[in-house]
Amino acid sequence: MIQATQTQQLLENTSMEANTAQSKQMVATQYNRAMKLALDYALALPGLLLIAPLFIFLALLVKLDSPGPVFHRRRVLGKDGRVFEAFKFRTMYVNGDEILARYPKLRRELNKNYKLKCDPRVTRVGTFLRKFSLDELPQLLNVLARDMSLIGPRIIAPEEISKYGQYGKTLVRVMPGLTGLWQVSGRSNTTYDERVALDMQYIATWSVWLDIKILLRTIPAVMKGDGAY
Q: What's the pTM value of the predicted model, to 2 decimals?
């Protein structure tokens, strides 16, 4: 886990970089956009076709495990502040809010970090899906729809943008990603400020090679299941 002073220093450094003309050009040039688009389609479309049997199997598990829809649609913030619906396999009971109401302390923790390590709303199958990030596979559809990229900052709800403070404008310069620095740097074991710092670092230092490195690091991170809940 990153120390608090290191987190603040990283935020200050990456914020300065991300707000220079060079950084703006880096995320906006037609060449870089084309390269990122090509990488997304080259991997997302064949990937979705290859995992189709797994996709159907997981959908059946979700349906048989608990009543409710197979997919969960979450309103999240995209590029240029556009709100869209991100798809996931449903991992919670449909009466999740009622369940959480019994635990005021957990509600306060959720309001602070937008994550719960021991979440009573999560189903048995949902726990397994989250551990190995399988619940996020439907977001390949969002990648093909150009709402998301394979690699980028993590997706956040519109109300979370206030937690980014001065860095919010930088965040919405790019599309959120299915995976990113946060996912390969501890995932949910990181604090919220650390997640912000990692998102800013990604935007400030983006390159095609960085995306490839993150993709390669994602595979072992997902297989180990560390920091996922």
A: 0.82
3-state helix, strand, coil in the chain (%, to 5): 60, 10, 30
Of 132-146, 156-170, 212-226, give the range with the top mean pLDDT.
132-146
| E-assigned strand segments in the chain | 71-77, 83-89, 149-151, 177-179
57 within domain boundaries: yes
In a domain, 129, yes or no: yes
**Ramachandran category for residue 114: left, alpha or beta (phi over 0 → left; psi -120 to 50 → alpha):** left
Per DSSP, the residues of 67-100 read SS-SEEEEEEE-GGG-EEEEEEE--B-TTHHHHH
- Residue 113 pLDDT class (50, 70, 90 cuts): confident
Angle between helix axes 52-65 and 30-50 (nearest 10 degrees) is 70
Residue 31 lies in a domain: yes
Please answer whether residues 121 and 93 qualify as being in contact, where contact means their C-beta atoms are separated by less than 8 angstroms.
Answer: yes
Which residue range forms the structural domain that includes residue 203? 4-224
